[in-house]
């Protein structure tokens, strides 16, 4: 009987914790704090939801450190440092995902990711729904690797592919309505196509830049090196440096 009581109590505790974590993940967010700006690579970038994370620029790198759980999933919003970009483009960065508490160590907190995003400005923060594509690295739902995601009117679908490292070169290339998402090991010169999304719903002007998020108890720092956005005219440019 004693062991049954202990097991029952343990089950109840796990259930309560699970409900609490689920609420934290699914609970609606409050309105975002006022946007801020940061100068990086000689250009002014907008800091979306600055209350969620710290931003630091050091030479060719921009470092985001998450302060609280926040999610880029469904109609959830998290950190995004972006520029408004109109028309065809390619956004590229070398991305490192590390523990904020120990920046020399790979990230280990659950679903803790950062990378590149192209987002419709008319999102949940202005009374609409979230629409974007992104490619991120870090600790995915399938472990360390790279995740690609598309969110349409708040409905998210993603694919997570494990890899040996939470660091990766990432790229988003837009040609018309087609978004091609690329990855490669840091230091490689060959791009690997990770996903292709046809998004005719996305407007000509998008918020394009680096994002950060973690669903629970984050210990996450994302460092972007050489983050840049350039215009493109043809598909071949998507895989050229």
Q: What is the 3D form?
A: globular
Gap from first CA to last CA: 68 Å
* Number of helices in the DSSP assignment: 1
Question: Can you tell me the CATH class of the largest domain?
Answer: Mainly Beta
Helical content (DSSP H or I, runs of 4+): 10-25%
Structural class label: mainly beta
**Structural domain count:** 2
What would the average pLDDT be, to the nearest integer?
A: 91
Largest sheet: 8 strands, antiparallel
**How many beta-strand runs?**
15
Task: Please state roughly what percent of the residues sit in beta strands, choosing from under 5%, 5-15%, 15-25%, 25-35%, 35-45% or over 45%.
Answer: over 45%
| Rounded Rg | 18 Å
Topology (elements, then pairings):
Elements: H1 2-26, E1 36-40, E2 43-48, E3 53-58, E4 61-66, E5 79-86, E6 89-98, E7 112-119, E8 132-140, E9 143-152, E10 155-162, E11 168-175, E12 178-184, E13 192-198, E14 205-214, E15 221-231
Antiparallel strand pairs: 1-2, 2-5, 3-4, 4-15, 5-14, 6-11, 6-15, 7-8, 7-14, 8-9, 9-10, 11-12, 12-13
